[in-house]
Amino acid sequence: MHPEEDRWDFSRADRLVGFAQRHGMRVRGHTLVWHNQNPPWLFDGDPSREELVARLREHITTLMRRYHGRIREWDVVNEAVADDGSLRKTPWLEKLGPGYVALAFKLAHEADPDAKLYYNDYGIEGAGPKLEGVVRLLQDAQRRGAPIGGVGLQGHVDTKPIPYWPETLRRFTTLGLDVALTEVDVRIPAEPSPQDLAAQARQYRALADGCDAERRCRAFVVWGLDDADSWVPDAYPGQGAATLLDEDLRPKPAYRAVREALGGT
User: Fold this and answer.
1) 229 FRET partner, CA 20 to 30 A, in 16, 35, 107, 244?
2) Catalytically annotated residue among 183, 191, 214, 260
3) Measured distance CA(253)–CA(195) in Å, rounded
4) 4 classed as catalytic
């Protein structure tokens, strides 16, 4: 979308947002600040702090103002915490210090005061050092005046029980934040047995039940429409079949489990 400093390409995003508008769908903006998939120009030339802040401001402002009123919730900062709970070592942290998270939220709020702004991360569905690290990060950002509205829990999981789910949601709601499940998939063997599919359905049901029971859980978003489009086989060799629909777009047991958990028949 922003491949060169002075060149933007909104064509694909415009098509997606236009499709959503024509079909009465909501669009979630993902993501404004991340350590991955950045264009080379962003950190080239060893930019100063002032230059990098200006680039960040221009990117966030241009993007959010273009879709003002059409994208109402954004993942502002994505995956800023490492698996051990420390801040992830990234050029953003190196150049701007730990306050870059709060800065990004302030810039996003300036660009679109009406949007709901989320911090988004993986591996925080259950108790552990990463959950604690994200809680510390959010508390620090709030002390810095960041207008954070919610936390996105990605929900990339397998079928093992998640420790202290869904009590972990309350770690965030007690901070005054909404929560959402933003990238849910449940990986199982690429050639699943009926038992694998049943275990997957139970895990999806547990995640959906947890969201449904929490008053401030605002969304349940799956990461990919069907198994043919899932990222899981590339990331987890031998694993796959992670979504609600199979490769022929047929509903799986997991689909029925989520539908029932959210009140469908």
Assistant:
1) 35
2) 183
3) 11
4) no
**What is the per-residue pLDDT across 109-165, written as a single tens digit (0 to 9) for each?**
999 999 999 999 999 999 999 999 999 999 999 999 999 999 999 999 999 999 999
Measured CA to CA, the distance from residue 178 to residue 201 in angstroms comes to 25
β-bridge pairing 178-186 and 188-189? unpaired
- Cβ proximity of 107 and 61 under 8 Å: yes
Task: Please confirm, yes or no, whether 79 is among the known catalytic residues.
Answer: yes
Can you list the domains of the chain with their CATH numbers? 1-148 (3.20.20.80), 154-265 (3.20.20.80)
Spell out the residues 6+ positions from residue 15 whose beta carbon is closer than 8 angstroms to its own. Answer: none
Name the catalytic one among 4, 50, 79, 214. 79
**Contact predicate 215/262, CB 8 Å:** no
What backbone torsions phi and psi does residue 123 show, to the nearest 5 degrees?
A: 70, 20
Q: What is the tens place of the pLDDT at every residue in 58-92?
A: 999 999 999 999 999 999 999 999 999 999 999 99
CA distance 257 to 205: 5
> pTM for the complete prediction?
0.96
